[in-house]
Specification:
mainly beta; 22-stranded antiparallel beta barrel; five-stranded mixed sheet; 6 helices; 47 strands
Length: 780
């Protein structure tokens, strides 16, 4: 086991700061205990699951005095004159509650804890979770740059085709390499550097159909939260960003049946109460249907790509303080393809087939013995199996079999009005087995672009791995209300993995400072680590020979973030963010072509973002946002230096939605991005075929001469997507239908370039053309 000495110094600094803050908080608490006025404090929790509620308003009727609950559901109203008050509690999505005749005496700290009952909106996919993105909740949020999307936004965002991950492309700092993938790149980081959590469980490669569609079902998602950097100590083992997907529970009011159909798939949702409302269930099934139609007219040895998935979530209250939740998810997908030989275009004959299965099972126990104490424990099991076979002039066979057991637990303790502690640990045991067998002419291998990540690179014909890894992490953080204006969250994290046998400490710090009633300045910094293993390698299609380097180390990044957020009114918000990610010890391929991993990569990602949002308020009909990002990301190794494949200097996203009336809504999304880098072909050389005497007998094949890695730039990308949504009643049932046009003006955006075998001609493969789509949902 080895430790990073720089981490030890950082850890010592954090521990000293924790001690000083603890002493200062005790002195502050004693100073506040005296006085002729009183204090009203307590917690606001949900009556359904006893979870603390953030952003609840607490008002003393007849006065201008009030407060707002923090992340732990805690509120405190100081300097209250002695007397009797009617105290009103309210939160959007919950029923209003008034407690009459609350007596507050001189010098008294009057405790009052209440439960609020949920009042869901008609459609569960538009249910309000917490109004954290509001002027009232502005100073309760310590994280800079956090982005939250509700299910209604996911389902109605033009161009996202109701895809959870694709919807994130409309927010600043998020880019996508192509229309054909739902992978997200956040502030210069790769998709393998994003920590993705599904109901608290770490998920890898959550995609269907080779990455075209995300595996998250928007019909059951309650909220998605993206932290693009500077995330707190609770999250570990990733360098770039955190994406949390929270799925909703089923209805406790009564049985409900839904159907949602898009141009890609159709789904059914069944939900209802258990044990007289003490629990609930929700079961969903989703499947593509276009393949069932097209396969009837396709050739016998062709099967169009398909997928189906099943998701179930059961929740049951064991009492006032305990709840058990069981989650199950299973998916399958595949395809079969036959490419016929074409001598004129030099296309070889080829057969391909692929079959993929995966599943997730999780058990969660929530224990809330007191309003200021909550404990969450979770066990999860994940598995994935895939087999791939390609036959013809090229031959490639592959098999992947992996599974992971995960345990995690976190405790939140509101120790005082100033301090809220978050403690936790996690353990992951992963086993993986995979192999590749590849046979191809040497001339084809020579044509592979330098830096191209592929399991059949030059000098690499066959590959196999069979092993297991264990990773353990523990953290502690404190959310500290230093003053009425200043809110801090500081923490320390410890991680260890036996894959590289290295332990690291990660100090984290987030600060929010209230400049004015509607303005907040926020910042964050910290150390972030990511362990190299085959689970993260596979996310970027990289299968190195780790056995050739027994000295691999953990990758490291330092984040610096600064943001300013201001509410012009209840409906208008402006945010500016600046970020810098300094990454080192990145695992790269030695000399770009050897498949030997080494910690020789250094990278920097920096940029600035502007976000202007118009929210619906009262009877507003118009909503939307404008997001601009100026970004820069570059990788450096001892033998090369180049821009990342997703380096995009300028990107602009415009989203608008206009609600004409209660049954008709128009929406549009327009995206612009400067060109991504690519490696140019600057020449060709003949492939010499020699006989046994060394004489040249054939020069009919050619191989490319590559220019500087990612030295060229594709043309700029821009696209307009339009959507019209209708809500109506038909056959006595509520329906919602939409018509959507993707790439409305048919912009021919460049995806990549291809060449003929002699590199005398270049063809362009374009992104999606103009595509009309439609869909509907109905509640029975």
């Amino acid at each position: 086991m080895s430790f990073d000495s720089s981490n030890g110094k950082a850890a010592g600094w954090v521990c000293l700061r924790l001690l000083l803050l603890a002493v200062s908080s005790c002195l502050l608490a004693s100073a506040l205990s005296a006085g002729e006025t009183g204090t009203l404090s307590g917690w606001v929790v949900s009556e359904t699951d006893h979870e603390p509620l953030l952003g609840a308003n607490v008002i003393l009727r007849g006065t201008k005095t009030g407060g707002v609950t923090d992340e732990g559901g805690y509120y405190s109203i100081d300097k209250v004159k002695p007397g009797s008050y009617d105290v009103e509690f309210s939160l959007l999505g919950y029923g209003k509650l008034t407690i009459h005749g609350v007596e507050i005496g001189s010098g008294q700290d009057r405790k009052l804890t209440v439960n609020l009952r949920e009042q869901p909106i008609v459609f569960p996919d538009v249910e309000v979770i917490e109004d954290r993105d509001s002027p009232e909740g502005l100073h309760q949020e310590v994280l800079p740059s956090v982005r939250r999307l509700k299910p209604r936004q996911i389902k109605t965002l033009p161009g996202a085709v109701e895809d959870v991950l694709r919807s994130l492309r409309a927010v600043p700092g998020v880019t996508a390499r192509s229309d054909y993938s739902s992978q997200v790149f956040v502030r210069g980081g790769g998709p393998d550097q994003n920590l993705i959590l599904d109901d608290g469980l770490v998920i890898s490669s959550p995609y269907h159909v080779g990455g075209l569609i995300s595996a998250f079902n928007p019909d059951v998602v309650e909220e998605i939260e993206l932290i693009p950097g500077g995330f707190p100590a609770r999250y570990g083992d990733r360098l770039s960003a955190v994406l949390e997907v929270k799925n909703r529970e089923g209805s406790r009011e009564g049985f409900e049946l839904w159907n949602n159909t898009s141009i890609i798939s159709t789904s059914a949702i069944v939900e209802g109460p258990l044990s007289g409302g003490r629990g609930s269930y929700i079961v969903t099934g989703r499947r593509t249907y276009y393949d069932l139609i097209l396969n009837q007219i396709a050739e016998e040895d062709v099967a169009f790509p398909y997928f189906y998935d099943l998701h179930a979530k059961l929740a049951h209250d064991l009492g006032r303080a305990d709840k058990l939740t069981l989650i199950s998810y299973y998916s399958a997908e595949g395809f079969k393809y036959h490419q016929k030989r074409d001598e004129e275009d030099e296309i070889p004959e080829m057969w391909m087939d692929d079959l993929h299965h995966s599943g997730v099972y999780s058990l969660i126990w929530n224990h809330n013995p007191r309003p200021n104490l909550s404990l969450r424990s979770q066990y999860g099991y994940l598995f994935m199996k895939e087999s791939f076979n390609m036959r013809g002039d090229l031959s490639l066979r592959g098999h992947v079999n992996g599974h992971r057991h995960s345990l995690n637990q976190n405790l939140i303790r509101i120790a005082s009005p100033e301090h809220s502690l978050d403690l936790g640990w996690e353990f992951h045991h992963t086993e993986a087995e995979f192999w590749w067998e590849f046979v191809a002419p040497d001339s084809l291998k020579d044509e592979l672009e330098p830096g191209q990540q592929s399991p059949f690179r030059p000098k690499q014909d066959d590959f196999s791995y069979d092993g297991s890894t264990n990773r353990f992490g523990i953290y502690a953080s404190d959310r500290y209300r230093a003053s009425e204006r200043a809110l801090l969250e500081y923490g320390l994290r410890f991680d260890y993995s036996d894959f590289v046998k290295e332990a690291v400490f990660s100090p984290r710090l987030n600060i929010s400072y209230k400049i004015g009633p509607n303005t907040s300045l926020k910042g964050a910094t910290g150390l972030f680590y990511q362990y190299p293993d085959y689970e993260s390698f596979s996310e970027k299609g990289y299968f190195p020979e780790t056995s050739k380097n027994s000295n691999l180390k953990v990758e490291r990044a330092i984040h610096y973030l600064l943001g300013l957020e201001h509410y012009l009114s209840e409906s208008w918000k402006v945010k500016t963010d600046f970020y810098l990610k300094d990454m080192s010890r990145l695992v790269v391929d030695y000399l770009d072509t050897s498949l030997v991993p080494v910690n020789e990569g250094e990278a920097v990602a920096r940029g600035a973002e502007l976000y202007i949002e118009k929210k619906k308020f009262d009877d507003d009909k118009l909503s939307g946002w404008l997001a601009y990002t100026l970004g820069y990301s570059k990788l450096k190794t001892p033998w090369n230096s180049y821009f990342y494949m997703t380096d995009q200097r300028h990107s602009l996203n415009l989203f608008g939605e206009y609600e004409v009336n209660d049954w008709l809504t128009f929406g549009l999304t327009w995206r612009y991005g400067s060109g991504f880098p690519y490696t140019e072909v600057v020449g060709v050389t003949p492939v010499l075929v020699l006989d046994t005497t060394g004489a040249v007998v054939d020069t009919s094949d050619w191989k490319p001469v590559w220019g500087a890695t990612n030295g060229g730039r594709y043309p700029a990308y821009h696209r307009l997507d339009l959507r019209t949504t209708f809500s109506y009643n038909w056959l006595g049932l509520p329906w919602e239908a939409y018509i959507e046009i993707i790439n409305a003006y048919n912009r021919k955006n460049v995806y990549t370039y291809t060449y003929n075998r002699r590199y005398t001609e270049r063809d362009t493969i374009h992104e999606l053309p103009l595509v009309p789509t439609f869909g509907f949902s109905v509640r029975f």
